[in-house]
Amino acid sequence: MHAVITPSTATRSSPNVARARRRELGLSRNEPRNNARGATSCTAAQISHRNVSSHCAGRPGIARVGDAQPASPPTGAIPRLRARQRRYHERHRTRLNETRRGRDRARYAANRESLLSARREQYRSDQALAERIRARNRAWYERKRDQRREYRRRYWQEHGDELHARSRERNRRRYAEDPRVQLDYYKQWRLQNLERARAYVRVSAHKRRANAAGTHFTFEAWEELLRTHGGRCAYCGSTDHIEADHRIPLCRGGTNEINNILPACRRCNRRKHRKTEDEFRAVLAAEGSNSRA
Ligand SMILES: [Zn+2]
Predict the structure, then answer these.
(1) 215 CA distance to ligand 1 centroid (A)?
(2) What is the whole-number distance in angstroms between the Cα of residue 148 and the centre of ligand 1?
(3) Separation of 159 CA from ligand 1 center, angstroms?
(4) What is the pLDDT of residues 55-74, one digit of tens each?
(5) Element (H, E) at 155
(6) What stretches of 126-144 show up as alpha helix (H) in DSSP?
(7) Residue 267 Cα to ligand 1 middle (Å)
(8) Rounded CA separation 199/191 (Å)
(9) Among 190, 202, 207, 200, which residue's Cα sits nearest to residue 149?
(10) Distance from the CA of 99 to the center of ligand 1, in angstroms?
(11) How far is the CA of 281 from the centre of ligand 1 (A)?
């Protein structure tokens, strides 16, 4: 009788199975059973379709001297099984990919922090990688340049006041917590980034001027305006650090023409900031009535 081994009939305890397995492996009855463990090949029957890799893992591919030769060469079985797995994957591609994606996402979510810090570490240590990433980002920014500029411009127009208020609030809070720390921080930053600090001023002045359509007031017109105000701040009357203030700020569509200019002390000019003349006067009036009350 010829014993056929299938996964369903192969059980550990059956002596018939053991005999059949020996025959399949080409072992004689006298050879010890555990020689089969060192066998260099696997028969198709031993390889269930699920564990090709685990069954054959770690086994040497070349027959050792003294090893029994297998009855049939195994080279056909594994490629056949691999082809079957490939076909299975082809048929169920969508479902399998979905499963894998879900698993990957869950793994990412579970290890997000460590993965991110590993990536940051890699970015820090691998100069070539960092350069590749920066190049990719630069390319993206270049491609989207006009779109980004338009978006920023619109966003700033709509939310400028709000953004300013928020950052002013934040700075005030920090300053109130510890004035020294905040001032030292600014000073340090400026010292360490002198070129950038100067560039910021240049760029913002340039932007402001570019934003203001029309002509710039002349020095003579400014001197005449100062004379009519007696060299004093148009808001508080101080003579300290008089500057040219825009009644309607440039950032809100004001011009650089002399009828949009008033002399203001540095303190009033800083406080007025993005407010119009009317808004700032309203603030001053409210303060005045508060202090009188
Ligand atoms: Zn003033």
Answers:
(1) 26
(2) 38
(3) 28
(4) 444 444 444 444 445 555 55
(5) helix 145-177
(6) 127-143
(7) 6
(8) 13
(9) 207
(10) 69
(11) 11
CA 117 remoteness from chain centre: 12
Domains present along the chain, CATH in parentheses? 1-49+67-91 (no CATH), 95-143 (no CATH), 145-192 (no CATH), 219-292 (1.10.30.50)
User: Ligand 1: distance of its center to the CA of 192 in Å?
Assistant: 33
How far apart (Å, rounded) are the C-alpha atoms in residues 245 and 191? 29
202 alpha carbon – ligand 1 mean position (Å): 25
Expressed in angstroms and rounded, the spacing between residue 183 Cα and the centre of ligand 1 is: 24
Q: Which residues contact 139 (CB under 8 A, 6 or more apart)?
A: none
Q: Cα(240) to centroid of ligand 1, in Å?
A: 8
Q: Which of 16, 71, 65 is nearest to 38 (CA)?
A: 65
Strand partners, 246: 261
Contact predicate 77/43, CB 8 Å: yes
How far away, in angstroms, is 133 Cα from ligand 1 center? 50
Where are the alpha helices (H) located in 26-92, listed in sequence order? 52-56, 77-91
CA 7 to chain centre: 51
CA angle 260, 264, 267 (to 5 degrees): 135
Q: Using one digit for the tens of pLDDT, what is the confidence trace for 136-195? A: 999 999 999 889 888 888 888 788 888 888 988 998 898 888 888 888 888 898 899 888
The CA 270 to ligand 1 mean position distance, Å, reads: 9
Token pair listed for 188? 């340090």
Assigned token pair, 254: 């004001």
Q: pTM of the entire structure? A: 0.34
Ligand 1: distance of its center to the CA of 51 in Å?
85
Which DSSP state fits 43?
A: -
Instruction: Tell me the Cα Rg of the chain.
Output: 41
How many whole angstroms from 225 Cα to the centroid of ligand 1? Answer: 16
